[in-house]
Design a protein that fits this description.
single chain; 209 residues; alpha+beta; 7-stranded antiparallel beta sheet; 46% strand
């Protein structure tokens, strides 16, 4: 005969009440933290060259190229990133980028916020919702010579000692997602130019493990 069977009905009631009380205390202490963990945002970033929403060209009537002035009738290829939330509501998402040549930081740059296609610096994403953010653009055609043919599409394109227009070259990018209710999440991207400057380069992106 086990210990439980030896207890009187009154004892069993007392044990049950104590267990319920203990469970209530545990739920009160850790329940909210548990549900926040279960319901936390789960952000993924991807680039699909076969998607017009990620990879499209456009003609820019007046293109102000940094350090080179205004050029007319410039055709640009745009590289956009798809940002998807597979978890709970993500609030005030912002995405910052830093750029490297190999492992070396580039001069005239510092981590800067990217521009959502909505034109905002921050976005909310509900469960299952996705949105696109501008990342890079490359000059494909121009009637005038342009040297800085690769642009980082920063949110604040104002003079501040930051060079967002760069010559075509291989670059590595550190992309970090921030939000009010998530910890920072890092992705690594690489741009590799085509040998023909009039053909779009190659972009790859992966989560930084």
């Amino acid at each position: 005969m086990n210990t439980w069977e030896l207890l009187t009905i009154a004892d069993k009631i007392q044990v049950s009440l104590a267990s319920i009380t203990l469970l209530a205390v545990i739920v009160a202490l850790f329940g909210e933290r548990f549900w926040r963990l279960i319901d936390r945002p789960k952000i993924e970033i991807s680039f699909n060259r076969n998607s017009d929403r990620c990879f499209r060209w456009a003609d820019v009537l007046q293109d102000n190229v940094q350090d080179e002035g205004v050029h007319m009738n410039v055709r640009r290829q745009y590289f956009r990133l798809k940002v998807k939330n597979n978890g709970g509501l993500a609030r005030n998402l912002r995405i910052r980028v830093d750029v490297f040549r190999g492992d070396e930081e580039l001069e005239r740059f510092e981590p800067s916020t990217l521009l959502w296609i909505s034109g905002h610096e921050r976005e909310d994403l509900a469960n299952g919702e996705s949105e696109y953010i501008n990342f890079l653009s490359q000059v494909l055609q121009s009637p005038t010579r342009i040297g800085n043919r690769l642009r980082i599409e920063v949110f604040n394109a104002a003079e501040g000692g930051i060079a967002w227009d760069r010559p075509l070259a291989r670059y590595n990018y550190k992309i970090v997602v921030y939000g009010d209710n998530i910890g920072p999440k890092t992705f690594i991207a690489r741009f590799t130019p085509n040998t023909d400057i009039n053909i779009p380069g190659r972009l790859t992106i992966k989560e930084d493990c």
